């Protein structure tokens, strides 16, 4: 009876170890920190680093968009927080916005980030209550980014320099 119990325990441990190895290959973490972050996401206990988020928000308000994005990446390394992804997309919009032309690469990366934000909040539309922002929903931001990515004859309109950034 005892040898049967040892065999069953060995079999269960072997299956658990194989599942762990498959999970490591599937998630492809580069550091041990990424392993723990992925485990938190899988367990449903993942939370962003609020201190880094607040630091990024103050950088964003001082129009230091690249530094703010770096801080938000540190705050949300798994890219699982819709609000953080929204702010990242907004920083791409603000940095890429120009009176004469839009930076297509920054707008493209912003569109990817806002799509992540929308995917992370499927139950209800993502709305951010920030008085400093002119666009408060992910749908508005997505529309603005996609409009900036389109090429049309209105791009050569000289009155375009009079518009304001949102």
Reconstruct the topology from this structure:
Layout: H1 2-27, H2 32-43, H3 50-61, H4 65-75, H5 82-96, H6 104-120, H7 138-149
Write a brief caption for the model.
With 166 residues, the protein is an all-alpha fold.
Give an account of the 3D structure:
- With 166 residues, the protein is mostly helical.
- The protein folds into two domains: 2-43; 50-162, Alpha Horseshoe (Serine Threonine Protein Phosphatase 5, Tetratricopeptide repeat), CATH 1.25.40.10.
- The protein contains seven helices and no strands.
- It starts with a helix and ends in a 17-residue tail after the last helix.
- The relative contact order is 0.09.
- The mean pLDDT is 83.
Entry keywords:
166 residues, Serine Threonine Protein Phosphatase 5, Tetratricopeptide repeat, 7 helices, 63% helix, elongated
The total of helices stands at 7
Q: What is the CATH architecture assignment of the largest domain?
A: Alpha Horseshoe
As a whole number of angstroms, the C-alpha radius of gyration is: 22 Å
Query: How many individual β-strands?
Result: 0
**Oligomeric composition of the shown chains:** single chain
The CATH topology of the largest domain comes to Serine Threonine Protein Phosphatase 5, Tetratricopeptide repeat
Overall 3D form: elongated
Mean pLDDT, all residues:
83
What's the CATH C level of the largest domain? Mainly Alpha
The helix-strand sequence is HHHHHHH
Which percent range describes the beta-strand content?
under 5%
The proportion of residues forming helix, as a percent range, comes to: 55-70%
- How many strands, what sense, and barrel or not for the largest sheet? none
Structural category is: mainly alpha
How many structural domains are formed by the residues? 2
N- to C-terminal distance: 73 Å
What would you give as the CATH superfamily of the largest domain?
Answer: Tetratricopeptide repeat domain
- Give unreliable regions as ranges: none
């Amino acid at each position: 009876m005892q040898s049967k119990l040892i065999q069953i325990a060995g079999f269960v441990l072997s299956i658990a170890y194989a599942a762990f190895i498959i999970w490591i290959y599937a998630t492809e973490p580069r550091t041990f920190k990424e392993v723990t972050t992925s485990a938190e996401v899988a367990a449903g206990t993942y939370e962003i680093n609020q201190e880094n988020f607040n630091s990024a928000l103050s950088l964003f308000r001082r129009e230091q968009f690249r530094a703010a994005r770096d801080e938000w990446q540190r705050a949300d390394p798994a890219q699982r927080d819709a609000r953080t992804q929204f702010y990242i997309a907004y920083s791409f919009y603000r940095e890429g916005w120009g009176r004469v032309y839009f930076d297509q690469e920054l707008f493209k990366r912003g569109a990817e980030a806002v799509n992540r934000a929308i995917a992370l909040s499927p139950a209800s539309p993502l709305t951010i209550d920030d008085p400093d922002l002119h666009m408060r929903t992910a749908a508005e931001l997505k529309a603005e980014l996609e409009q900036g990515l389109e090429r049309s004859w209105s791009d050569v309109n000289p009155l375009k320099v009079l518009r304001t950034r949102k």
